[in-house]
Amino acid sequence: MRRATAAPIWQLPQEVIPPCRPGATRQSLVVGVAVVALLNCALIGRIDNTTFQTIRSKWRLMEQTTQPVGGLVLSDSTGLLGVRPLQLGRELGEAPWLNLATCKNLLLVHQAWQLQWYLQHVGPPQSVLVVISPTTLSQEANASTCQLAAQAPQPWGYWKRMEPPLEIAEAGFPRMALSRYGPLWTQRTSLDRVLEWPVRAAVAWMARRPPPGPPLGPPRQIAPEDIPEVALGFEPAPPQQSAALARELARWQSIPPFKLTDLNARALRAMADWAERTPFELYLARGSMLRETAGTAKGRAHAEGAERCFREVSAGRRHVHYLPELPAYPADWMSDMDHVRPAAAKQWTSRLASQIRATRLAEPAQP
């Protein structure tokens, strides 16, 4: 009779690998992609993807404009919530302006593209206000810039035909295509909110509080005047505000020194040249800054660097004007390092209108 011998304890069980056929693998991939595509098609009209909706709504706003307006606001996210177009037009005694601001990672080149498209399809506006954060001027184009550029509702490859063109390696095209055609799942904010909503609703129900609303809703364009007074970053309570301020100051110290990038420089010169040839009045202003960061050595260097760039491009040009006031606000007037709250937006817009009026009186528009 043979005695069974125990296997050594270090011997692992033999792995059984199921047969894998190329056809089955392809079928699994196709089914997975098809399910995701169907999900996007079903929810594409109810995406709560702020960046995606902002970019597309600004281009749609231009497409729906049939006649030149009183003025355009071209900006990164500092002007998206900081410049109030209805108030600006009202204080200047003009028709309401259009706020076409988008986001920082699109750099100044996207604003030049918007202006070029508007001039070609609508006509020259009376005035154009460019508001740009000093840190945006020194930012290079990156993968995020390319992906966001692909989200504009323009023909694929439009970025190569605009001025200045954006050179993109073909290796980045797949991710750009996903960002353009599958925004619901290529940008994590939307999916996170969809997945978190049942949990947040259940917690609110157990706490006998009204549940939060669904995260998805029909796309809409919210005017800055309609945005409620909410705390997006800094909290009014001193302990939380102090902690947030400390984090922002630490993050500011990691920002590289100011240097106007070549792409931003070409975009700035292109807009200035269009203002001279068309002509229309082009006003250049720096974006809002947190007062505490503006007072640091690096903050002053960025603010002065942006001022130097704007003065150089406006020198010798009759239709290009620099608005010198730096909108620096304390922490309780800001939602984060660059973005003002609605109360500060009212004041900032009023100050911009005052500077434009003063510039027009000092330098009357010339033919």
Largest sheet: 5 strands, parallel
Alpha-beta classification: alpha/beta
Q: Roughly what is the average pLDDT, rounded to an integer?
A: 81
| Contiguous uncertain segments of 5+ residues | 209-237
Total strands: 7
- CATH class of the domain at 49-142 and 241-362 reads Alpha Beta
Supply Rg: 25 Å
Series of secondary-structure elements, N-terminal to C-terminal: HHEHHEHEHHHHHHHEEHHEEH
The first-to-last residue Cα distance is 112 Å
Overall helicity: 40-55%
Strand order of the largest sheet: 2-1-3-4-6
Query: So what's the overall shape?
Result: globular
CATH architecture of the domain at 49-142 and 241-362: 3-Layer(aba) Sandwich
Bin the strand percentage.
5-15%
Q: Please, how many helices?
A: 15
- Oligomer, anyone? single chain
CATH topology of the domain at 49-142 and 241-362: Rossmann fold
Q: For the record, what is the CATH homologous superfamily label of the domain at 49-142 and 241-362? A: SGNH hydrolase
